[in-house]
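Input/output pair, single chain:
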Amino acid sequence: MGSRDELIQCSIPFLREVKDMTPGAEMERWLNQKYGEGSQLYQDLARLIKRGVEEGWAANQEVDGPNYRRSRILEPMPETFQFSITAVYMNSTDPRRFKDEDDHDVFRGQYHGHPYGELNLVVPLDKGAELRGLQGWQGPGWTAPDPGSRHYPEVRGGAVIALFYLPAGRISYDFTAPS
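Output:
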């Protein structure tokens, strides 16, 4: 079995467990307590998605240059309880970064919305790298944006891979970003 198939197989029991839960702050806390950085699930998924980026099957399509890439690994299907699996790579060393309120270099991706929410595994590639979730900055662990939420994905402190599970594969870029 290749690493892509291994990642999918590793995801299925997790998706079975969360399929009837609603993304949001409560679920995010639960995910970080039960499946945080020290858990076997986190370790396995992080290892496999890193391998996917190295092997070129994950986060391999440039969105806006080499420091912002993503790819759909699997479309929604019955075996994944209609979740899709996607990976994104973002690196705050990109020349288009900006300074945040704490004077960190931040790279911002495309504004988008989550009609049904999102479950997002955050895998820093650089020590101290973080992804901004709706509850604040997240290093190794999870974010779980609520259904109907909209945001810019942002990273600081270096490179991050986000492995995300979308209910029904739904994500929308058809929103006007706030000014």
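The longest strand covers residues 83-91. The longest helix spans residues 3-18.
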